[in-house]
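Task card 7
Instruction: Convert sequence to structure tokens.
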Amino acid sequence: MADEIKKSVCVWCKAECGVLVHVNDGHLVKAEEDPEWLAKVRPATRGCARLRAAKEWFYHPERVNFPLKRLGERGESKWQRISWEQALDEIADKLKKIKAEHGAEAIAGTQGTTYKSEMELRARFFTGMGCPMNQSGAANVCFFPRTTVANAIVGMFPHFSIKPVTKCIVLLGAEPLVSRPATSHKMHEALSNGAKLIVIDPRKTTSASKADVWLQLRPNTDCALLMGMINVIIAEELYDKEFVEKWCHGFQELKQRAEEYSPEKVEEITEVPAEKIREAARVYVTSRPGCFVEGMGVEELTSNAETFHARWILAALAGNIDIEGGEELTGQHPTILSYPEIEPYVRPSDEQKNKQLGSDRFKLLSWQGQQLIGENLRRVWKRPPLQFLISHGPALARTILSSKPYPIRAVISNGSNPMVTNPNIKMIYKALKSLDLYVVVDMWMTPSAELADYVLPCASWMERPLLWDFSGYDRYMKAGEAALPASIPGEYDHKGDYDFWREIAIRMGDGALWPWKSLEEYYDARMKPTGYTHNEYVHKVRCEIKDFKESHYKKYEQVGFATTTGKVEFYSTIFEKLGYDPLPRFCESAETRISSPELAKEYPLTLITGGRVREYFHSDFRQIESVRKLHPYPLAQIHPDTAEKLGVGEGDWVWVETARGKVVQKATLFGGMKPDIIHTEHGWWLPELPGEEPWLHGVWEVNINVVLDDEPDVCDPLTGAFPLRTALCKVYPVKGYAPRWTGQK
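Output:
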């Protein structure tokens, strides 16, 4: 049989590239970049190691291919293969029993990145069941903080609106060359046209080495740095006076607050020279239009909300809001229906909403905070807004263990690996082991899956259709068809998460909320206003970017901003109403040499974590040999001067230790950061080590999150984000260490 060529969209990273999947008799032959797509969208992802390994990934012998039920005790890695019908029946029966005994709030979930699951489907399942949306996971420190603060301050989040006409780009804790190839391509175009580049980062990334201004700040002092830039712009009267006067709320209050952050004072806090701060402020405000690209480098800080607030103040002072090449407030795609517009859709009762974990303390997470923001968005944009219905991640494990404020007895992890990606793994481990029911829907036997009662094989992007509009924050839409069957008798039996959620809901009596028999039918419903079915769109349009016409910019002149005052809120009325400081203020992290001088005597170095590497995507691909050989070991970057003092050489194995424990890493010398900083990578585990305890695929040995804290007192007070970028540590050689792992089975 001749090869079929299917048009799909790869979501193994945030480039979301169009690919051609070659199929023969239902089997994968190869996957390759689509030349037509590259010519149209042009993300800089040619030669992707992950895509080259598509066949190796899909048919890997360690992939979970059939539903598994635990035998023996949790962590023994003893499994029985069962049918989907048996798995779904048993899980639904257990969930019904838990709900009857403890209430719907006793059922919670953890969620991963969007390439494994669609968040609106989780929301439909949990809210339909009456749960208060006790969902935690990646969104706590990725995308939720930046979008929610933007919604509160300017009334919409712009999805990195770099254009060829952009004259200044500020990378705020982001390195698009590694984490966002499509954004990187847009940045390259703008820089080629003469745009200025400002990079705010403790490390000399590739982008920082090319920057016009690199601000090498002390970790987690970003808010102070931005407030210093605000001070300069106001003091030197460089701001857009007309825009500020007409369209900004709270300028006098901001001016008074900014006076506390002179460049000299900020230099003391950030260790960035005062003249560098002045230079950055002047370059940014005089190079219009300009825009920011922020990333998880800020979202994983304990002051992310304050930092994002200051970032938006800078954008408004420069007059960069909703202009071409600036911070373009695009809004949702004009024709596709957002998931809140799809009926039937239900919300929990007010009583249940008040039970959402962390909502009493981290109020931007809460239904109350989201409602305040949502009312403004709906008034201006005339459509139900996308809102993140998530709970405070660190509260979940604590509630499971304490049963306070109520019991949580079941957790469903959907494309999520909390034993690897969350801090304080020791507590997570205890919590997962104590549950009455733990279900993992994934593609691999991760350390988290090894602790489950049921492990269910999730379909990959090659086995399901895709529709992606960046969660309703952009005017583009991408669509791909299912290239491969999700099930081939005798070979594998996968299900997409739509089918999983729907079939469990039907068994629990909530089937009326799932009238569409398949994910493609659901997409057809969302696409009805376009005049296309999903399949028609894939083959006739596939990728659509709704560019603005000139008349679409400065929409605020007709409708105002989607905020309480109708203006950009320097002084946030929503923050004030929720009981927070309405203006940005720098606060020292709980664990630094400044705030914890006694602890710093034993742990004199600052540990920053979370850096991504191009070969991997979050915690995935470490089991793929062709990819793993490109980056086989977890690396700890150490300054050469520090390494010499510690007796550490390139490639030596070292312990990285905090007050909470230690893990082993391989040292690599890096002079692009200050000598008192250590940097380690995100997402490490060792699939080649045994799954049973005590190994759990090496998670205790190499995962940096073992040594990180997530106590509520150290989290961001508005968003609840937990600290992955600042901790005090020490580093020393591992004597006589030889790794038991090689990257191969």
